[in-house]
Amino acid sequence: KVDILSAVLLKAEDEKRPLTAAERGHAELMIRRSDNDATDALYTDIGYDRGLDAANRRLGLSATTAGRDKHWGLTETTAADQLRLLRLVLTDEESDDNPLSPSSRSYIRSLMSTVEPDQTWGVSAADSDDSGFELKNGWLSLDPDGTWIINSIGIVDHDGDDVLIAVLGNKQPSEAAGIQRAEAAASAAADAVTG
Prior knowledge:
β2 and β3 form a beta hairpin. The longest helix is centred in the C-terminal third of the chain and has 20 residues. The protein is of the alpha+beta class.
């Protein structure tokens, strides 16, 4: 959903306009509440998979393929691509290869820092003082086998260091198990890079 919002913002920047009230409303619901109807609306606005794939090329997400047939939830990606997206969105580094404006990045960060309290699991487990993290989680039950996809991306303050983390979990036996594994992986990753 962070990827879709980035695509929406790139489209608005290309058209030299701010987000419309409807786009802002959908963006806030999509990131803060993980609202799927709002995501459907924004995925439609960007031109479905073609629009997201075009935005991903601009963002340098070379191993990410948008979900086909209007199924954004089946987008395939890698941890490396998600970390690249996080660097573009969550760091203040100015570079020629970042197509997102500072105001677009600031807007995404403001939403990722204010997700609903029941959705603050995941990479936040690696945050040392349980505050100041910015994240977005994703989850999907896979039929017919009943396994889950559990993803969590974001930035945390781990022992005084800002750490970008992307955890992607496929074939999790349950939602709860997937969340627990995502949190353990996030904590281990943060310890490894700051230790």
